[in-house]
Amino acid sequence: LEEEKQQKMEEKQQQFQALDDKQRPWSAWSRTNESCVQHTGHDIEQVQELYSMCEQPLINYCSHKNYRHTNSTTTSYLSPMNLLAVTLWYLKHYHSERYIATELNLGRSTVNYLLPEVVDILHSSIPEPYDSTQRKAYYHAKSSRNYALKVQVACDFHYRIVHVSECYKGSVHDITVLRDSGLLEHVNDSVQIIADKGYIGEEYVVTPRKKPRGRELSDEDKSFNRDINSARAAIENINQRLKTYAILGSVYRGAIDDFHKITKIVQVVSALCNMNLNKHPIRKYTT
């Protein structure tokens, strides 16, 4: 019985693999890079690279879950590649589950179930692009607010990596988020954090100089602030890139108190952003 079960599983996996390039919507989106980028935020090569990272978990998932079209008499399901493509589409454009179900002719409950499952697969399959020793250099931290939550975002200029912390409520002070993020464990006289005025007073955090009451900033202070703002502009560039994924840049529709789920989504989007940074890097701070 075990051998028969294993044989059926292998046949099913081969069936799913054969559908990867033939089944819509991937068969339509993969015709041109422009179409692929428009729908998923990544070109064909990047999507295929992503798929290679999580191919086996996606195949295993499909092997245990057959999805049927709601108005079809034949068995039809999303192939592993389409599971990935549709999830990227969801993260990029944040269409409602009802809209996705209608477009793909699937049941809404099916879409509600598969999207978080594939996000979990992406979260566990995309490798971390750095090790602990690399995290000690070139940190520039900036806190951003998303759907009444905060997430600590740091960009490593040397390695062009985006790091994110856990999510927090918007009422939590920026310095508290920074202290909880773990970044301060890696700073010293030679490795410091550049931040805005919300972090004034924290050791090893370089912030713009405040205008004295009743006086103007000196030319030296203005020059210093320009340098700080120039460095922070790259972090704002990272924030802007993250928010091109509508699931971060628009109003979040999920449970606002499910921090674990939201953190996982932000970390997956950051990993996808890191992939794009390889091809389209931010300018390097040279001041």
From TrEMBL:
InterPro entries: HARBI1_dom. Keywords: Metal-binding. It comes from the Eukaryota. The keyword DNA damage does not apply. Residues 120-274 form the DDE Tnp4 domain. Its cofactor is a divalent metal cation. Residues 1-24 are annotated as: Disordered. Pfam families: DDE_Tnp_4. One of its GO terms (molecular function) is metal ion binding. This is DDE Tnp4 domain-containing protein. It comes from Didymodactylos carnosus.
